[in-house]
Amino acid sequence: MDPAAGPVLYQKLLLWEPSLESGEEEEEGETLEPLVPDPWRPQDSSGNKPGGLSRPWARIAAALLLLAVGCSLAVWQIQTKGSWTGSLGSVAPPPSGHSHRPGAYHHGAIISPAATCSHLGQELLVAGGNVVDAGVGAALCLAVVHPHATGLGAMFWGLFHNSSSGNTTALMPGPAQTLAPGLALPAALPTLHLLHARFGRLPWPHLLVGPTMLAQEGFLVDTLLARALAVQGTDGLCPLLCHANGTLLGPGAQATNPKLAAVLHRAALAPTSDLAGDALLSLLARDLGVEVPSAGPRPTLEPALQLPMPEGILFTTPGPSAGPELLAELEAALLSGAPKPDPCPPLLQTAMSPASSILATVDSSGSVLLLTSSLNSSFGSGHLSPKTGVLLSNLVARSAASTWACPLILRSSPDDTEADVLGMVASGTPDVARAMTRALLSHLAGPQTQAQHQHQAQQGQTENANACGQGTLLQVAAHAEHAHVSSVPSDCCPFQGF
């Protein structure tokens, strides 16, 4: 509505009443006609209106008719709404009967390790955001609800394919720097802000509303966080993740982080990537009694590494991530004739691997965002900053970041902006490049291998940790004007779409 337009005047609509039959005309000569005529009252084709039921019965009849119409509309609206909202990882068929398998959506989808964050990403998509808005919002949400794997103290790597321009861009966090002995300088806020400033659509503060509310008002401890807490113990995590008596929070318990909520609120007001990081850095330096570094980490957006393949062109992140190692693995496999891959990707046991978090978003036009982040160890350094509620990473210069950062995107045609696009990102394995290589070869092996994979899943083999390990592989794709999401193991990560 034009804000300069004058006020809108509303006039009460009148039900038909016998008193309106007096033949009186309004000032402009128009006769008031009934909005809903009495279905029981006889009508004269000549225009004469013979007498009928008394006024109470007329009102009752009209009200019943309106009630029936209202109920019909309400039922239709509920059925329509159900086709949009659906439950986690599913979509209800619309009234027309048109439906898809779980994980296939008309517009866009997101998959992450936390149901709350997948839902938040979906809300950003529905609000008019793109895959970058949804992914960055979900990443900030994970920083609140999964402090064992990611957070504002983590390092982030990413890979973004823009279907409009056909360009694929790598998000690089810059070299790891030390804030204090054994503690890394946090880089999450400036890295995510840079990505959003270049490619996002919604206002930056909009993305922080949900994560800030979760930190302030509380979030439920899920199974993954509770499992990590049981291994870690209470050392350094109380009172944030402990009951008043000092015992650890269990699954379903509610946790809050008001100090983190205050940091996120300050970051929402930051107009630049550098200032977004400063919202946290000055408080951390005061906590630790150290000088604020003159030059913090400088994240960058760089062209992705490329590898032409018979099936299309592959993109991944440049060094010091595991991207170059991935390309070397794939080139070796292709030159050797690419032996038939195992349909179950070798995501190895996580006992010796760094703790990391992954998520993926995709839309039906082929835009894809893959994000991976890490604190290096479970709960990072274990040092909880009292003034910020942030767990600092122990990922410093000597750490091997290449063991966990390895997203890939395969575009079936380098010249067709509407070509099929596939995205993969993995966590929980110290040999991620080999795992991703075999997962991609498995995908390219065709329907026969995929059918074998589905058969194993029906037999319960791929759900066995001994068969696929304890790692996680997320896969997203744009195909046939739909967005598709899936994961290995199949039930590890909730997804949402619309």
Report on this structure:
The protein has a 7-stranded antiparallel beta sheet, with helices on one face. With 498 residues, the chain is an alpha+beta fold. It has 12 helices and 18 strands. The longest helix is centred in the N-terminal third of the chain and has 31 residues, at 55-85. A hairpin with a 2-residue loop joins strand 5 and strand 6.
Notable characteristics:
about 500 residues; alpha+beta; seven-stranded antiparallel β-sheet; about 20% strand; disordered N terminus
Report on the biggest sheet.
7 strands, antiparallel
Separation of termini?
27 Å
- Report the structural category: alpha+beta
Radius of gyration: 29 Å
SSE ordering: HEEHHEEEEHHEHEHHEEEHEEEEHHHEEE
Would you tell me the overall average pLDDT?
A: 76
Secondary-structure topology with pairs:
Elements: H1 55-85, E1 104-105, E2 108-111, H2 115-126, H3 131-145, E3 155-161, E4 168-172, E5 178-180, E6 183-184, H4 188-199, H5 204-217, E7 219-220, H6 223-232, E8 254-255, H7 258-268, H8 273-288, E9 300-303, E10 305-309, E11 312-316, H9 323-335, E12 355-363, E13 368-376, E14 408-411, E15 421-427, H10 432-444, H11 447-458, H12 465-468, E16 472-479, E17 482-488, E18 495-497
Antiparallel strand pairs: 1-17, 2-12, 2-18, 3-4, 3-13, 4-9, 5-6, 7-8, 10-11, 11-14, 12-13, 14-15, 15-16, 16-17
Helix pairs in contact: 2-3, 3-5, 4-8, 5-7, 7-8, 9-10
